Amino acid sequence: MRVLVIGGGGREHALVWKLSQSPKITALYCAPGNAGIGQTCSCVDIAATDLQGLLRFVEEEKIDFTVVGMDDPLMLGIVDLFREKGHRIFGPTKKAALIEGSKAFSKDLMKKYKIPTAGYEVFEDSQRALDYVGAHSFPLVVKADGLALGKGVLICENLSEAEQAVREIMEQNKFGEAGNRVVIEEFLTGQEVSVLAFCDGVTVVPMVSAQDHKRALDGDQGLNTGGMGTFSPSRIYTKEMEAVCMDKIFQPTMDALREEGRPFQGILYFGLMVTAEEIKVLEYNARFGDPETQVVLPRLQGDLLEIMEACVDGRLHECPMQWTEDAAVCVILASGGYPESYQKGYPIIGLEQLRNKENIFVFHAGTAQKDGVLVTNGGRVLGITAVGKDLEQAIHAAYAGVEAVSFEQVHYRKDIGIK
Ligand code: AMP
Ligand code: GLY
Question: What is this structure's pTM?
């Protein structure tokens, strides 16, 4: 089969790496990809949001199966377009992807179907939102309704922070149209767990758990980022919790979306908060998590393409899935200054030392080739993933890998996996 993956970050590098092991694949492409992905398959210079360009490529190159890694093309309706033209594609339709594209939609869905989540209100008018925060105790969480690169969530400790958050999102349009509405939410305390799940519209099969470190600095300090590192499995998420989540969250969400005429195929990402009372949903994403994918896929045994095909064909219930007992840890090497402003174009050195290490995988997020030299080309640059018998071994191996690599102004957290 001829396969195309859409996206160009660490998540897509992990997807391409895993898919390239499938004996069914005769040609593998990634659009737009990055310098690391280009070492595993052919990169095609088409933006992930250029749906017509991608469609043309699929038709000209006779691609049999497309895998969407990123959220943006999903929200633009790439799955609907490709299906209309008779092409097989892995991912949710635009209507189903709204579960990530609108926090107001996802919160209302959870309320209607009694799926546990933080209490909330939705506002379309900034004055009403300001009145509401004025009458409330703190902390409170203010969220832009739409997509904002993981930065549209503001945890407010007092009234002046909450007023500023509402003004920035709704009046100064800091996140553009994503801020036409806000969700204001009760603050939850507990530990976060990420569970990604394969979905075929009816059946939902959760993968092994992971935990993400979203803040930029050690000890969960600093700004929220796209993710500074991750590990799998979570230390706190037990088999019993998984059974409860299946019963109260995973299957109810799948059923709710089908009930609403938005059957979900692809990857549903459950961002969970394990509170003292119960497990609640913090957020949904309609795609693989980045960097969670970099620790989950190395633990998957068997052929990822076969599972994805089973999702698209609606026969996930008969598809076997096995995971290793190993643990995996991924440390993100970021550009100094991320998630705010940072420089690009610094040479990356030392990667050749990791090339033949069996338990280490280097997934590229923001890299490019410039005059034959590998250089930094984004906020998150590389993810160094290591697999070990347990989390301690994996942490040790991942940081040994990190030590081997360097570039100017590199920034990474020293406490990934220690939660
Ligand atoms: P979200 O994009 O909705 O997952 O929010 C990003 C991050 O903000 C989450 O991973 C949490 O760390 C934090 N967060 C979001 N909602 C809440 C909440 N209701 N209570 C506490 N923390 C939250
Ligand atoms: N790691 C969080 C996300 O992919 O949204």
Answer: 0.96
